[in-house]
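Worked example 2:
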Amino acid sequence: MKKVFTISSSLLVAVLIFFVAYNIAFKKDSEVSKKTLKEYIGVKEERLDSLDSRIIPISDEPATGIFLDKKNEKISFYSTDNGKAWKINFTGSKKDNISNNDLIGLEDVLWSPSGHQVISVFKQIGGARRFSLYDYQKNQGVGLDGNISSIAWDNYGNKIIYGYTEKNGNKNISIADPDGKNWKKIADTQIQNLSIAPIPQTSLVSFWNEGKNKEETGLFVVGTNGGEVKKIFSGKFGADYKWSPSGERAIVSYLKDQAGNKMTTGLVDINGGYVDLGIPTIISKMEWSLDNKYVYYALPSMPENMTMPDDYKIGKFKTTDTFWKINIKNGEKTRLIGLEEINGAYDVDKLFLSPSEDALFFVNRSDGKIYRLKL
């Protein structure tokens, strides 16, 4: 009996030693596997645990002036903290510095379609704006005329289109080389708060008065060589527009009732035809699909006592959004992500899609960072 007990005890000790050794080895192998995984996918350690989440932050700081480099699948942006410029991949795991210059008062950055040039927008005392051009290929910058009030790139990035105030106080829309040379007036206008957007796939320029609660908005078009100015849409208050990639239609967001604060949306075509979408959101929370068949959008919760869209634009309140898309042909709405999968509060701004349309990117106004929603 004593011999049996001794043998049993020895076996028990051996099993215990094996069990302890196995766990130590397994733990070590797990740590190596985790490290190898991180090295393989290039993901920062703090983001490894969030890979299964449908929505993740991909920038470490608040961002403005965002540019999508479709060819290289990179996103360029400027930090709103100090104006330094960065480039990140679509997961945010690799970050490269583009410019290390501190830019005081930077409000926005407009990239040329090629990504080689930028127009920086600086806010000055009193609310006025100052514009400057920087060429990354030439490493040269130049300040633009102080009488420019608003600006946009043309479809090719060869020209800038801008609102200009003449010495006599008259206003016009002009087109010029990016540095302001070889300018030409293409239209007269008396619009104070001017928004300008070239119409994709055309030689036309659209412009309108920036949407405000008490102002009726008119949408106008003119050729880049000048000529007749046509009003193609009007009668909406607080309106803003975003053209489809084909240039055939634009989303319009506007006040549902002139005296109210509720927003709604529709589609307007190049000839002024209108189709109602009925989505209670705003342009900055909407983006076209690459094939022009869908519109992706964030659906916000909005306080009843705010003046829309003015109070939202100046940051008087934040929204909590859900994510959707609509088929513009049949009006079918689809939720992009379930409520149970949304792991934070998102006030969506500046939506844009990945080239393969497998991810939707946006700036979260709650913290200013760039986020990715996996589709």
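Confidence is low (pLDDT under 50) at residues 1-50. Residues 62-190 form a domain with the Neuraminidase fold (CATH 2.120.10.30).
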